[in-house]
Write a structure and sequence with these properties.
The complex is a heterodimer. Chain A is built from 12 helices and 12 strands. In chain A, the strands form 2 sheets. Chain A has a 7-stranded mixed sheet with strand order 3-2-1-4-12-11-5, sandwiched between helices. A 5-stranded mixed sheet of chain A has the order 6-7-10-8-9, with helices on one face. The longest helix of chain A has 27 residues, at 227-253. Chain A is of the alpha/beta class. Chain B is mostly helical. Classes of the chains: A alpha/beta, B mainly alpha. Chain B: Residues 1-79 form the Carrier domain. Chain B: Belongs to the acyl carrier protein (ACP) family. Chain B: Carrier of the growing fatty acid chain in fatty acid biosynthesis.
């Protein structure tokens, strides 16, 4: 049986949205056990008597909050739901760690408690984002686990993302591109020029450089980038999308009757667009390169994204993603 | 544990972690200058030291540890 360790206290809607999502996904994942870490009384109250099978609660007394400094928090708040869950995974009792809490602290739990896979230089954070071309979206790695990157790291991240795209997203021979400031081979600073050369020498389906405006077009299934650029890029995409949607809604609803009628007529088209850019069904961002999948979903998430993230984690466990990485990186050392 | 035993354990740990020759590890070896250790390497090392020696190294103390010799001295003086 697979086991997922869940920090039930992370995020704005904890623990209710988390427990509700677990109860919703449980009948679908019959070979999976869910261990919830957090305030025992609060969690218990949310679980009906007849739905307690394959559910365990482990009581913890502290919570890591967003304002906590990540490394200090995981070293000091030893009885926090996140740290106790991470140690549970480290001990081998669960195969994956899931949280909606402080991203930095979760990354620190992954890197320092669960630990790096031997041969992996640096773990990296990878979400799946929507694209215009494909309903499957694309992966971008690293979006901020590393402030400083080396060319060799980018190659390992591409390899890990490649396994993920093949095994979890079912993409055959995924295309891999390097995010750069131009499409030509010699573009970029020394880090990106060297990364380009190294990526070209791999057996990955590397299609070269792409620029920022190519990302959402879906020019590649996997975009590799240094953590600094990746983080800035992700925030720019999220921020731009949010502003456009807000302005669109505002201009349709606050400009008299005609735009309102227009919006009503355009509703099926707008709904289809919304569905296409529905990020919830892609699940959470995964920290790849540590000894168990560590997965983060947005702190504001309601049941739906949490539900899909649990399905995504279950698939990673079924495909033994970490086992594949261990085999691969022990050979390449 | 004697100073020599502590040194040997730490040297083994560093040799494995940073893939460098065990013979090249001396007490003067500086984590940042000689190993090119960044903050992730350093925190990993400190947590590894805590696990290996069953010691708790507070952040303020950890920040002061710059060489292998200083780490050996710290572990020796904080043994249970």
């Amino acid at each position: 049986m697979k086991t997922i360790a869940i920090d039930a206290m992370g995020g704005e809607n904890a623990p209710k949205a988390i427990v509700d999502a677990v109860l919703k996904v449980k009948p679908k994942l019959r070979d999976t056990k869910f261990v919830l870490f957090g305030d025992e009384e609060k969690i218990k109250r949310l679980i009906p008597e007849d739905k307690k099978d394959r559910l365990e609660i482990i009581a913890t007394s502290e919570i890591i909050v967003d304002s906590d400094e990540p490394v200090k928090a995981i070293r000091r708040k030893k009885d926090s739901s996140m740290v106790v869950a991470a140690n549970y995974v480290k001990s081998g009792k669960a195969g994956a760690l899931f949280s909606l809490g402080n991203t930095g602290a979760l990354l620190a739990c992954g890197i320092f408690i669960i630990g790096r896979i031997k041969g992996v230089e640096r773990p990296a954070l990878m979400p799946t984002l929507p694209s215009a071309k494909s309903e499957q979206g694309f992966n971008i790695i690293d979006v901020g686990a590393n402030a400083q990157s080396k060319p060799e790291y980018l190659v390992q991240w591409a390899q890990m993302a490649n396994f993920y795209a093949e095994k979890v997203r079912n993409i055959n021979k995924p295309t891999v591109a390097l995010l750069n400031n131009g499409a030509e081979d010699d573009k970029g600073d020394p880090l990106h020029q060297e990364a380009y050369k190294l990526l070209k020498e791999t057996n990955l389906n590397f299609i070269g450089n792409v620029e920022g405006n190519d990302l959402m077009e879906g020019k590649a299934d996997i975009i590799v980038t240094d953590g600094f650029t990746g983080n800035a890029t992700l925030k720019a995409i999220e921020g731009t999308a949010g502003v456009i949607l807000r302005l669109l809604k505002d201009s349709l609803l606050n400009n008299g009757l005609r735009p309102k009628v227009g919006a009503l007529l355009a509703k099926p088209g707008l709904t289809a667009l919304k569905k296409r850019f529905d990020t919830a069904r892609y699940g959470g961002a995964v920290l790849l390169g540590v000894n168990a999948p560590v997965v983060k979903t947005h702190g504001r998430s309601n049941i739906r994204p949490i539900y899909y993230t649990l399905l995504q984690i279950d698939k990673m466990l079924s495909q033994d993603l970490v086992g594949e990485y261990k085999k691969y990186f022990s050979k390449s050392r | 544990m004697t100073e020599e035993e502590i040194f040997n354990k730490i040297a083994d740990m560093i040799s494995e972690r940073f893939s460098i020759d065990r013979d090249k590890i001396t007490k003067d070896l500086n984590f940042q200058n000689d190993l090119d250790a960044d903050s992730i390497d350093f925190v990993e090392l400190v947590m590894d030291l805590e696990d290996t020696f069953g010691a708790e190294i507070p952040d303020d103390d950890a920040e002061k540890l710059q060489t292998v010799g200083e780490a050996v001295e710290y572990i020796k003086s904080h043994q249970n």
